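Worked problem 6 (solution included).
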Amino acid sequence: MKKIALLFMFTLLLAGCDIEDDGPGSVQVLAEVVDADLPEFFEKGKLYQIKVTYLLPDACHTALGLQAIRGGAEGALRRDIYVAGVASYPTGLEDCTLESEDLEKMDSFTLRIDEDQPFTFYLWTGVDANKESIYTKIVVPVGEATPTPAVN
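Solution. The predicted structure is:
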């Protein structure tokens, strides 16, 4: 009886899925980072909320958030953080005729500082003539807060 019930459920599942569906969809693209709220320095062991402002390409794009990934799993590459906005637009869109004054979007990501070496942020700003990504590079050192001397 269990086998029949499982077979019935599997059949219903397959009947609900149309593999040939060419209906509406969307395409994801990177969006230019125009600002990042980075401190002058990080303190090891602390957790930071990094706020990033990115720009939608046009009013036909929808904001999806941020992509923040490390350059590698270990060593110096682990301290390289690549940041880009992410947007989408409808599949098949050829020309955007919509207008909007609200193309700047803000989002954030969390970063724990677990090393005492500088972190390098690569903020995606577009592509060059060869379709290579262009980044704004910002290095943030890791140190300790120095106490402010008392004024007498």
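Discussion: The chain is about 10% helix and 45% strand.
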